[in-house]
């Protein structure tokens, strides 16, 4: 016998993500789901952002398949941090975030970064309760990435293009990254930065501060 | 790479409905998977077969309809579908204003039970 199901496969995840979002909203914390391929510089961007936080109260959830190296790097900046080890899973899901919410002083935070597992595909599919997704791409990954991995570019509110100081040494057309990313997502906000030299980071932190601030007021 | 998570979610949803409605066995499950969903259907089939053992769906086969990316152009007003996983411009008039409406599906349509 045929029976109707008519359900989205990720419905359970989306439901938990919504519950997480309510908890974040209740605590007045703005949540950024930070995604990129491995080695693009997510933790470096967080370190540089923490160094410029200037009164902004920032917490971090670190997602990695294994290890706590990233959390240890964040801890040095005195920021509240929780490490999640996915034990093989290639992305964070809403349930993993729900499990660690009690370990963070959410009421004392303005901004919470959820650093996803390094992967250009899977994290884009799973909501975790964030206010926005931000994607990081290092120029050394090549200018073909927007069209090869369109979903993450489409889902993100902002794209941070990192390692811009390597431009003289790699055959990459940064304007093509910008053009293709914008075609996929016309509202995409873009930043070019170097976490190594510090170039472009002030504009990124300023925008982050304004975006999180708007959320607090509204 | 996240096909195992998708397969696990799928198995949970259909098993729960099957139990709730008092059926004993799932014979087949009909899915709609969008081409822009980031899911490889071969990997999903493989993952589902690996995790379905010892469940009400242990003999179930997946029947997957792939859904092409589609949309409507706001310049020429026509509907379109594309072969790619993304749309950069209207394939008919080349316009840059369009709304993408299909291709992201990860839906369970129905299932055959006994």
Structure description:
The complex is a heterodimer of chains A (218) and B (114). Chain A has helices spanning 11-27, 42-51, 69-75, 94-100, 145-148, 150-155, 174-184, 201-217, and strands spanning 2-8, 30-35, 58-64, 81-85, 111-115, 132-138, 158-162, 189-192. With 218 residues, chain A is of the alpha/beta class. In chain A, helix 1 packs parallel to helix 4. Chain A has a seven-stranded parallel sheet, with helices on both faces. Helices cover 36% and strands 21% of the residues of chain A. The model of chain A has no long low-confidence stretch (mean pLDDT 95). Chain B is of the alpha+beta class and 114 residues long. Chain B is built from two helices and six strands. Chain B has helices at residues 3-20, 41-51; strands at 26-34, 61-67, 69-73, 79-82, 98-102, 106-113. A three-stranded mixed sheet of chain B has the order 2-1-6. The longest helix of chain B is centred in the N-terminal third of the chain and has 18 residues, at 3-20. Classes of the chains: A alpha/beta (218), B alpha+beta (114). At the A-B interface, strand 1, helix 1, helix 6 and helix 7 of A face helix 1 and strand 6 of B.
